[in-house]
């Protein structure tokens, strides 16, 4: 799929204020600093469409970007950022879950995981909760430029094993690097396929 246009539309914390044109949307979630905003820029090949930072906690709102005038990419705040106060964390969590559970246009959630780490309880718990609530999601292992291919397959296997404790079938898995654009075509094709099936 070719990205012809990619434009910022609106930021907010209230799903009632999200776009109402009923176009399909794909959102990115994961721990703070995992590379959600960077992945949106990589997919769209726009350097600073989504704001990124080396300091965790950069994205604090639900951000809608319209692609080719007919579907949305949605950048969400990260979870699990210790330095945000408990009150703000609760507030974040509330509107993120509100969005995930109630947004009917949300077609697929991409759960981003830093490929350098061992499976983390916070990510496993998050995905298990999505499963319990019947939210469709895929997994994206990010920052694969930062480790060797042998370490990557070791980490992926560890993760799969951990997921198979609770899941009979694994969700779709992507591996990406925002710097080398690995995984770009695969994710865009996946979205394109779903969009086409929705059209039918
Ligand atoms: P929050 O909005 O704070 O939740 O973070 P985020 O998940 O949106 O992460 P962001 O895209 O802001 O990236 C965090 C840091 O990781 C930045 O310094 C990025 O340059 C870096 N980064 C993101 N993706 C990659 C990647 O694939 N490879 C490398 N080497 N660095 C990356
Ligand atoms: Mg961000």
Written description of the protein model:
By secondary structure, the protein is of the alpha/beta class. It is built from 5 helices and 7 strands. The protein has a 7-stranded mixed β-sheet, with helices on both faces. The chain starts with 5 loop residues before the first strand and ends with a helix. The mean pLDDT is 94. Magnesium ion is lined by residues 36-37, 58-59, 75.
What name does the CATH topology carry? Rossmann fold
Uncertain segments are: none
Biggest sheet, spatial arrangement of strands: 1-3-4-2-5-6-7
Could you give the distance between the termini? 18 Å
The SS-based structural class is: alpha/beta
What does the radius of gyration come to? 16 Å
Strand fraction equals: 15-25%
Mean pLDDT: 94
CATH superfamily: P-loop containing nucleotide triphosphate hydrolases
Q: Which architecture per CATH?
A: 3-Layer(aba) Sandwich
Shape: globular
**In which range does the helix fraction lie?**
25-40%
The largest pleated sheet is described as: 7 strands, mixed
Helix run count? 5
């Amino acid at each position: 799929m070719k990205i012809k246009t990619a434009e910022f539309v609106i930021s907010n914390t209230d799903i009632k204020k999200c776009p109402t044109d009923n176009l399909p949307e794909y959102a990115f979630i994961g721990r703070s600093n995992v590379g959600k905003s960077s992945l949106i820029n990589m997919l769209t090949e726009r350097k600073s469409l989504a704001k990124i930072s080396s300091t965790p906690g950069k994205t604090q709102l639900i951000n809608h970007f319209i692609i080719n005038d007919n579907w949305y990419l949605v950048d969400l705040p990260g979870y699990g950022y210790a330095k945000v106060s408990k009150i703000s964390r609760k507030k974040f969590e509330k509107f993120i879950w509100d969005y995930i559970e109630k947004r009917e246009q949300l077609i697929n959630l991409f759960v981003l995981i830093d490929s350098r780490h061992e499976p983390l309880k916070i990510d496993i718990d998050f995905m298990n909760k999505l499963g319990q609530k019947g939210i469709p999601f895929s997994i994206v292992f990010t920052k694969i430029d930062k480790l060797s291919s042998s370490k990557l397959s070791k980490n992926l296997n560890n993760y799969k094993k951990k997921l198979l404790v609770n899941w009979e079938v694994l969700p779709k898995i992507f591996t990406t690097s925002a710097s080398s654009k690995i995984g770009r075509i695969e994710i865009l094709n996946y979205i394109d396929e779903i969009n086409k099936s929705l059209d039918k």
